[in-house]
Amino acid sequence: MARKQGSKADEPSRKPLVWLHGEVKTPPFMPEARQEAGMLLGLLQQGERLGMPQAEALTDVCSSCGALRVRDAGHNWRIMYRIDNDAVLVREVYAKKSRKIPKAVIDRCKQRLRDYDAAVKVAKKK
């Protein structure tokens, strides 16, 4: 039996987005930047590996962590993420104001990941 083209069986599986912190909305994002962020997050959900200039690896945080780079009229946004086997975790959304990621942002992201991993571990035991 033939499958219909474009049916769900033909579509690649998409990992769900899990928002640990932050959001992408207008304002403060301009509509074009919000659309770009949505497109980039969609590519991550489909399993695409993104590199510069759309994303940068954050291997000092963890091997599967990165930051999407979204240019906007007034800001350069960063969307910090981690790719798990079953989901894409959004850890932080912030307007970049310096060349280096602020230590406070990295520390918050690491803590959110520890909290998330602990909650998943507890949930699996039940």
Key attributes of the depicted protein:
2 helices; 24% strand; YaeB-like fold; 5-stranded mixed β-sheet; 126 residues; disordered N terminus; single chain; alpha+beta
Structural description of this entry:
There is one protein chain. This protein is α+β, with helices and mostly antiparallel strands and 126 residues long. It has one domain (17-125): YaeB-like fold (2-Layer Sandwich). The protein has helices spanning 31-45, 103-125; strands spanning 17-19, 55-57, 65-71, 76-83, 88-96. Strand 2 and strand 3 form a beta hairpin.
Helix coverage percent of residues?
Answer: 25-40%
Distance between the termini: 41 Å
Q: How many helical elements?
A: 2
Determine the oligomeric state from the structure: single chain
Proportion of beta-strand residues: 15-25%
Instruction: Report the CATH C-level class.
Output: Alpha Beta
The outline comes out as: globular
CATH architecture field: 2-Layer Sandwich
What's the helix-strand series? Answer: EHEEEEH
In a few lines, what is going on in this structure?
By secondary structure, the protein is of the alpha+beta class. It has helices at residues 31-45, 103-125; strands at residues 17-19, 55-57, 65-71, 76-83, 88-96.
Would you spell out the secondary-structure blueprint of this structure?
Elements: E1 17-19, H1 31-45, E2 55-57, E3 65-71, E4 76-83, E5 88-96, H2 103-125
Parallel strand pairs: 1-5
Antiparallel strand pairs: 2-3, 3-4, 4-5
